[in-house]
Amino acid sequence: MRPVTRAYAELRKDGRFGEAVKIAVWLAREYRGLYRNDVAADGWLARAQSMADRSDSVGDGDGPTSQQPKLSATSVVQ
Question: Structural domain boundaries of the chain?
């Protein structure tokens, strides 16, 4: 899990919030499903939602925000 959490941190630092959201959601699913650690999973989902909200306000580094659909942690899970 460490390489994935490092990738999340790097993407977040680089302002690539959309990609960071996807990694945070993946980590949440792993912690919940594989490790049965709901507390950690909820923490990663909170991070994902925070990044999704941030992506909406400043863009995710992949182009103009006006052309991007609203991002949310729950939409990534689906």
Answer: 2-77
CA distance 73 to 78: 9
For 4-53, the pLDDT digits (tens) are: 999 999 999 999 999 999 999 999 999 999 999 999 999 999 999 998 98
Separation of alpha carbons 64 and 62, rounded Å: 7
Instruction: Please say whether the beta carbons of 1 and 27 come within 8 A.
Output: yes
**Burial of residue 26 (number of CB atoms within 10 Å: 0-12, 13-18, 19+):** middle
Tokens representing residue 66 in the block: 């006006």
